[in-house]
Write a structure and sequence with these properties.
Elements (H helix, E strand, L loop, with lengths): L6 E4 L11 H9 L4 E8 L5 E3 L20 H5 L19 H11 L2 E6 L6 H13 L8 E5 L2 H10 L4 E5 L7 H7 L4 E5 L5 H9 L3 E5 L4 H10 L3 E4 L2 H4 L5
Parallel strand pairs: 1-2, 1-9, 2-4, 4-5, 5-6, 6-7, 7-8, 8-9
Antiparallel strand pairs: 2-3
Helix pairs in contact: 1-3, 4-5
This protein binds SN-glycerol-3-phosphate and magnesium ion.
Length: 243
Amino acid sequence: MLNLPRIIAHRGESALAPENTIAACELALSNGASWLEVDVNISRDGELFLHHDDTLERCTNGSGYLVQKTRDELRKLDAGSWFSETYAGERPGTLDELVELLATKNGGLNLEVKPTPGWEYPLVDAVSKRVKNDWPQNVPLLISSFSPLALQELRKQLPEAQLGLLVSAIPDDWQNWMQRFQCNTFHCAESFVNQDFCEQANEAGISVLCYTCNDANRAEELLSMGVSSIFSDKPSELARIPG
Ligand code: G3P
Ligand code: MG
């Protein structure tokens, strides 16, 4: 069982630094976050990059699909200028860089496996290989995905891993989905959770995590319903809520 914190930094400290960059992750950790959530995808030649969208336009100065670029092409991009001049020149971060950073800070990681449709197998293979290859013992790991195919393959390749079922709205047959992939935690959009659902999940020994909440009052409400952890773009601000 994982010891999850109440607040998890969503894409790093992403309200104050460009999402999913090492700078945003460093900032979240230095501001006191103990766990980070990042999205991961794969380059054409197999490097794992921290990136949310299938395409590069929104968060870098590149264009097109990330999966069609090589590591070297991606490392030449600027993933910071779109956010602010302060972060100009920030390179797209890799999972290896992040793991190294987390190991120095004893930070936990929720790795959201975010495949571009058609690239589920290469992404899961690379993530599984990385997890099996000398993952630092002081970096607790929870892997989640919206993709049923990714979850199925992750469970096959990583029978011991902590896996989170990630959805937007809560499906009526959510427990069947949990069982199908032997998931440990349940992640959903914050607008869909309610007290009844949390009680049902918690009675079954399942922690509920929800995204994305940047408001302290709403965060308190969610925690009082029985939500275990909240993904926030403003983790340092929400960390101040009492309790
Ligand atoms: O993992 C929680 C949350 O990050 C899922 O949605 O779109 O922000 O990756 P998204
Ligand atoms: Mg995410």
